[in-house]
Specification:
globular, 2 helices, alpha+beta, two-stranded antiparallel ribbon
Amino acid sequence: MGQKRSVLTEGHELLIGVELAGANRHDSPILCPTLEKVARFGSYLPEYIRVDMDAGYGSGVSRELLTELGFD
């Protein structure tokens, strides 16, 4: 048993949001709920947003989600 945390921060490591899941889950299913936390900033978002993730998010599904949400 354990816990996995998907943490979303801005460029200076200011916490924006956290998504929790069981430790035995793959990373990609918690990607969408994590990135959706950016929506609370609405029009205050910068024009260019870069997302850095580890290799666990390297699937085609994750890349398609990033493109759909407008992330690079």
